[in-house]
Request: fold
Amino acid sequence: MKKLIAALLVLCLAGIMTAAVAEDQLETVQARGKIIFATEGNWAPWTFYDEEGNRAGFDIEVAQAVAAKMGLEAEFVDVEWSGIFAGIEVGRYDTAANGVDVTEERSQKYDFTTPYCFNRVALVVRNDNEAIKSFEDLEGRVTANSPGSTYMTIGESYGATVMEVEALSETMALVISGRADATINAIDSFNDYMKEQPDAPLMIAAVSEDYTPVAFPLRKDGSENLLAAINQAIEDLRADGTLAAISVKYFGVDITAE
Reply:
Protein backbone atom coordinates (compact mmCIF):
# COMPACT_ATOMS: atom_id res chain seq x y z
CA MET A 1 0.00 0.00 0.00
CA LYS A 2 2.83 2.39 0.92
CA LYS A 3 4.54 1.62 -2.39
CA LEU A 4 1.30 2.39 -4.25
CA ILE A 5 0.89 5.71 -2.46
CA ALA A 6 4.52 6.58 -3.13
CA ALA A 7 4.09 5.76 -6.81
CA LEU A 8 0.98 7.91 -7.02
CA LEU A 9 2.81 10.79 -5.37
CA VAL A 10 5.63 10.49 -7.88
CA LEU A 11 3.12 10.54 -10.76
CA CYS A 12 1.35 13.57 -9.28
CA LEU A 13 4.60 15.45 -8.82
CA ALA A 14 5.65 14.58 -12.36
CA GLY A 15 2.32 15.84 -13.63
CA ILE A 16 2.69 19.09 -11.70
CA MET A 17 6.21 19.59 -13.04
CA THR A 18 5.07 18.87 -16.60
CA ALA A 19 2.17 21.33 -16.22
CA ALA A 20 4.58 23.94 -14.87
CA VAL A 21 6.83 23.54 -17.91
CA ALA A 22 3.86 23.62 -20.32
CA GLU A 23 2.58 26.73 -18.58
CA ASP A 24 5.22 29.00 -20.15
CA GLN A 25 2.85 31.61 -21.58
CA LEU A 26 5.17 32.71 -24.38
CA GLU A 27 5.42 29.15 -25.66
CA THR A 28 1.63 28.88 -25.48
CA VAL A 29 0.93 31.98 -27.57
CA GLN A 30 3.67 31.11 -30.06
CA ALA A 31 2.26 27.62 -30.55
CA ARG A 32 -1.19 29.12 -31.01
CA GLY A 33 0.09 31.86 -33.31
CA LYS A 34 -1.89 34.58 -31.59
CA ILE A 35 -2.41 36.48 -28.36
CA ILE A 36 -5.95 36.51 -26.98
CA PHE A 37 -6.94 39.91 -25.56
CA ALA A 38 -10.03 40.52 -23.44
CA THR A 39 -11.67 43.89 -24.16
CA GLU A 40 -15.00 45.57 -23.47
CA GLY A 41 -15.66 46.92 -26.95
CA ASN A 42 -17.87 49.73 -25.62
CA TRP A 43 -15.40 52.24 -24.16
CA ALA A 44 -14.45 54.72 -26.86
CA PRO A 45 -11.89 55.82 -27.83
CA TRP A 46 -10.03 52.96 -26.15
CA THR A 47 -12.04 50.02 -27.48
CA PHE A 48 -15.23 50.19 -29.57
CA TYR A 49 -16.90 49.35 -32.89
CA ASP A 50 -16.92 51.93 -35.69
CA GLU A 51 -19.90 52.82 -37.90
CA GLU A 52 -19.12 49.89 -40.21
CA GLY A 53 -19.13 47.48 -37.28
CA ASN A 54 -15.36 47.02 -37.28
CA ARG A 55 -13.41 46.80 -34.06
CA ALA A 56 -11.44 49.99 -33.41
CA GLY A 57 -9.78 52.01 -30.67
CA PHE A 58 -6.45 52.98 -29.16
CA ASP A 59 -6.09 49.77 -27.15
CA ILE A 60 -7.09 47.66 -30.13
CA GLU A 61 -4.44 49.13 -32.43
CA VAL A 62 -1.74 49.02 -29.76
CA ALA A 63 -2.52 45.36 -29.09
CA GLN A 64 -2.42 44.59 -32.81
CA ALA A 65 0.91 46.38 -33.18
CA VAL A 66 2.40 44.53 -30.18
CA ALA A 67 1.27 41.15 -31.51
CA ALA A 68 2.64 41.96 -34.97
CA LYS A 69 6.03 42.91 -33.49
CA MET A 70 6.09 39.47 -31.91
CA GLY A 71 5.18 37.76 -35.17
CA LEU A 72 1.72 36.88 -33.88
CA GLU A 73 -1.90 37.81 -34.51
CA ALA A 74 -4.14 39.62 -32.02
CA GLU A 75 -7.48 38.01 -31.24
CA PHE A 76 -10.07 39.97 -29.24
CA VAL A 77 -12.91 38.71 -27.07
CA ASP A 78 -15.63 41.08 -25.85
CA VAL A 79 -15.95 40.79 -22.08
CA GLU A 80 -17.70 42.86 -19.44
CA TRP A 81 -15.16 44.59 -17.24
CA SER A 82 -16.16 42.53 -14.22
CA GLY A 83 -15.13 39.31 -16.00
CA ILE A 84 -11.80 40.37 -17.50
CA PHE A 85 -9.45 39.54 -14.63
CA ALA A 86 -11.20 36.28 -13.75
CA GLY A 87 -10.77 35.20 -17.37
CA ILE A 88 -7.06 36.00 -17.29
CA GLU A 89 -6.61 34.04 -14.05
CA VAL A 90 -8.05 30.84 -15.53
CA GLY A 91 -6.23 31.24 -18.84
CA ARG A 92 -9.28 32.04 -20.95
CA TYR A 93 -7.48 35.19 -22.16
CA ASP A 94 -3.76 35.88 -22.23
CA THR A 95 -4.17 39.50 -21.23
CA ALA A 96 -6.48 42.51 -21.62
CA ALA A 97 -6.46 45.49 -23.96
CA ASN A 98 -8.78 47.80 -22.08
CA GLY A 99 -6.94 50.74 -20.57
CA VAL A 100 -6.03 48.72 -17.48
CA ASP A 101 -4.54 50.97 -14.81
CA VAL A 102 -1.57 49.60 -12.90
CA THR A 103 -2.34 49.69 -9.18
CA GLU A 104 -0.52 48.30 -6.16
CA GLU A 105 -3.39 45.92 -5.39
CA ARG A 106 -3.52 44.54 -8.93
CA SER A 107 0.26 44.21 -9.08
CA GLN A 108 0.11 41.76 -6.17
CA LYS A 109 -2.06 39.42 -8.27
CA TYR A 110 -0.85 40.07 -11.84
CA ASP A 111 2.36 40.80 -13.67
CA PHE A 112 2.13 44.06 -15.61
CA THR A 113 4.07 44.93 -18.74
CA THR A 114 5.87 48.19 -19.32
CA PRO A 115 3.21 50.95 -19.45
CA TYR A 116 2.17 51.84 -22.98
CA CYS A 117 0.33 55.03 -21.98
CA PHE A 118 -0.50 57.25 -19.02
CA ASN A 119 -4.05 58.12 -18.01
CA ARG A 120 -5.60 61.01 -16.10
CA VAL A 121 -8.92 60.69 -14.30
CA ALA A 122 -11.84 63.11 -14.54
CA LEU A 123 -14.70 63.63 -12.10
CA VAL A 124 -17.81 64.23 -14.22
CA VAL A 125 -21.08 65.80 -13.02
CA ARG A 126 -24.15 67.46 -14.50
CA ASN A 127 -23.34 70.93 -15.74
CA ASP A 128 -25.77 72.46 -13.21
CA ASN A 129 -24.19 70.71 -10.23
CA GLU A 130 -22.68 73.29 -7.89
CA ALA A 131 -22.18 70.96 -4.92
CA ILE A 132 -19.37 68.83 -6.32
CA LYS A 133 -16.21 70.70 -7.20
CA SER A 134 -13.54 68.21 -6.07
CA PHE A 135 -13.07 64.52 -5.34
CA GLU A 136 -13.41 65.33 -1.63
CA ASP A 137 -17.00 66.43 -2.30
CA LEU A 138 -17.96 62.83 -3.14
CA GLU A 139 -18.41 62.02 0.55
CA GLY A 140 -21.95 60.69 0.93
CA ARG A 141 -22.69 61.00 -2.81
CA VAL A 142 -23.51 58.37 -5.42
CA THR A 143 -21.21 57.65 -8.36
CA ALA A 144 -21.71 55.28 -11.30
CA ASN A 145 -18.87 53.04 -12.53
CA SER A 146 -17.91 49.56 -13.68
CA PRO A 147 -17.65 47.03 -10.83
CA GLY A 148 -14.05 46.33 -9.83
CA SER A 149 -12.69 49.25 -11.85
CA THR A 150 -10.07 51.73 -10.68
CA TYR A 151 -12.73 54.41 -10.92
CA MET A 152 -15.04 52.53 -8.58
CA THR A 153 -12.20 52.22 -6.06
CA ILE A 154 -11.47 55.96 -6.30
CA GLY A 155 -15.13 56.82 -5.66
CA GLU A 156 -15.29 54.55 -2.63
CA SER A 157 -12.01 55.94 -1.28
CA TYR A 158 -13.66 59.39 -1.14
CA GLY A 159 -16.73 58.06 0.66
CA ALA A 160 -19.10 57.64 -2.28
CA THR A 161 -21.60 54.85 -2.79
CA VAL A 162 -21.02 53.32 -6.23
CA MET A 163 -23.79 52.20 -8.60
CA GLU A 164 -22.34 49.35 -10.65
CA VAL A 165 -22.81 49.65 -14.42
CA GLU A 166 -20.74 48.31 -17.31
CA ALA A 167 -20.89 50.73 -20.25
CA LEU A 168 -19.64 54.33 -20.39
CA SER A 169 -22.92 55.46 -21.96
CA GLU A 170 -24.82 54.02 -18.99
CA THR A 171 -22.72 55.91 -16.47
CA MET A 172 -23.27 59.18 -18.31
CA ALA A 173 -27.02 58.53 -18.58
CA LEU A 174 -27.26 57.96 -14.83
CA VAL A 175 -25.52 61.26 -14.11
CA ILE A 176 -27.66 63.13 -16.64
CA SER A 177 -30.86 61.70 -15.13
CA GLY A 178 -29.75 62.55 -11.61
CA ARG A 179 -29.80 58.96 -10.39
CA ALA A 180 -26.04 59.28 -9.82
CA ASP A 181 -24.33 62.44 -8.61
CA ALA A 182 -21.14 61.83 -10.59
CA THR A 183 -19.00 59.40 -12.50
CA ILE A 184 -15.25 58.96 -12.55
CA ASN A 185 -13.58 58.02 -15.80
CA ALA A 186 -10.61 58.57 -18.08
CA ILE A 187 -10.56 62.19 -19.19
CA ASP A 188 -10.01 61.11 -22.79
CA SER A 189 -13.10 58.89 -22.70
CA PHE A 190 -15.21 61.79 -21.43
CA ASN A 191 -13.87 64.12 -24.11
CA ASP A 192 -14.64 61.52 -26.77
CA TYR A 193 -18.17 61.08 -25.38
CA MET A 194 -18.77 64.84 -25.57
CA LYS A 195 -17.62 64.87 -29.20
CA GLU A 196 -20.38 62.38 -29.97
CA GLN A 197 -22.92 63.98 -27.61
CA PRO A 198 -22.08 67.71 -27.64
CA ASP A 199 -25.40 68.69 -26.07
CA ALA A 200 -25.08 66.37 -23.10
CA PRO A 201 -25.50 68.45 -19.90
CA LEU A 202 -22.22 67.32 -18.37
CA MET A 203 -18.97 68.90 -17.24
CA ILE A 204 -15.69 68.03 -15.58
CA ALA A 205 -15.65 69.08 -11.93
CA ALA A 206 -12.08 67.99 -11.21
CA VAL A 207 -9.12 66.17 -12.75
CA SER A 208 -6.58 63.99 -10.96
CA GLU A 209 -3.19 65.59 -10.43
CA ASP A 210 -1.21 62.46 -11.24
CA TYR A 211 -1.09 60.25 -14.30
CA THR A 212 -1.78 56.54 -13.88
CA PRO A 213 0.28 54.05 -15.94
CA VAL A 214 -1.71 51.74 -18.23
CA ALA A 215 -0.31 48.32 -19.15
CA PHE A 216 -1.17 44.75 -20.13
CA PRO A 217 -1.86 42.42 -17.16
CA LEU A 218 -0.68 38.80 -17.21
CA ARG A 219 -1.35 35.99 -14.77
CA LYS A 220 1.81 35.40 -12.75
CA ASP A 221 2.35 31.69 -13.42
CA GLY A 222 4.81 31.25 -16.29
CA SER A 223 4.61 34.87 -17.42
CA GLU A 224 8.32 35.78 -17.35
CA ASN A 225 9.12 35.15 -21.01
CA LEU A 226 5.86 36.54 -22.37
CA LEU A 227 6.29 39.62 -20.20
CA ALA A 228 9.78 40.21 -21.58
CA ALA A 229 8.61 39.74 -25.18
CA ILE A 230 5.70 42.16 -24.84
CA ASN A 231 7.92 44.69 -23.06
CA GLN A 232 10.40 44.56 -25.94
CA ALA A 233 7.59 45.06 -28.44
CA ILE A 234 6.26 48.06 -26.51
CA GLU A 235 9.71 49.65 -26.34
CA ASP A 236 10.23 49.11 -30.08
CA LEU A 237 6.83 50.66 -30.86
CA ARG A 238 7.61 53.62 -28.62
CA ALA A 239 11.01 54.11 -30.22
CA ASP A 240 9.74 54.01 -33.82
CA GLY A 241 6.87 56.41 -33.08
CA THR A 242 4.04 53.91 -33.56
CA LEU A 243 2.59 54.35 -30.07
CA ALA A 244 2.57 58.12 -30.37
CA ALA A 245 0.92 57.97 -33.79
CA ILE A 246 -1.88 55.70 -32.54
CA SER A 247 -2.43 57.98 -29.54
CA VAL A 248 -2.69 61.12 -31.67
CA LYS A 249 -5.12 59.31 -33.98
CA TYR A 250 -7.56 58.55 -31.17
CA PHE A 251 -6.89 61.20 -28.53
CA GLY A 252 -5.48 64.12 -30.51
CA VAL A 253 -2.43 64.14 -28.21
CA ASP A 254 0.38 61.77 -27.27
CA ILE A 255 -0.41 60.07 -23.94
CA THR A 256 2.21 57.33 -24.39
CA ALA A 257 4.98 59.19 -22.56
CA GLU A 258 4.96 60.55 -19.01
Observations:
- The longest strand covers residues 34-39.
- Confidence is low (pLDDT under 50) at residues 1-22.
- Residues 2-22 form the longest helix (21 residues).
